[in-house]
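Sequence of NIBAN protein (Anseranas semipalmata).
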Amino acid sequence: ATVSEPAQKCCTENIQPFLTSILEELMGPVSSGFTEVRSLFDKEVNEIIQNFQKTNDITKLKENVDQLMNLPFNSVKMEPCYLKVNLLQELLQDLKSRFKVYHIDFVVQRTQNFMQELMENAVYTFEQLFSPSRQADSAKVATTIEKVKLRVLK
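Predicted 3D structure, token representation.
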């Protein structure tokens, strides 16, 4: 009871006025990282479509979709996504001194983990939605892939 009132006063005067601007500042790198994940998924699926349109090879299509399933674990391809949130390091340094925010590396790492998880969910959903269509007429496969991609991105 004796600590509650001073703590609330401290939060109300020294922290709460800054929360909105802090969140906006932090969301920039986070949003750009997640946008990069979306773009990477879109690019990879577009390459699958283009390759299939060139070859019309169902076996090669299956290989390409299998490779897509490994995308979240491909550190080279995911690296540009992760780099976007590295800007959090700099932003959080300022918060560390002003508000005693610790474990900055943990915040960045968790954000990158969420990005990988998002990619895992996207490729899994893509595979689940596309899987029944693999046996379809090869003329419709590219269109089906595009529809599934758009559904996943939605």
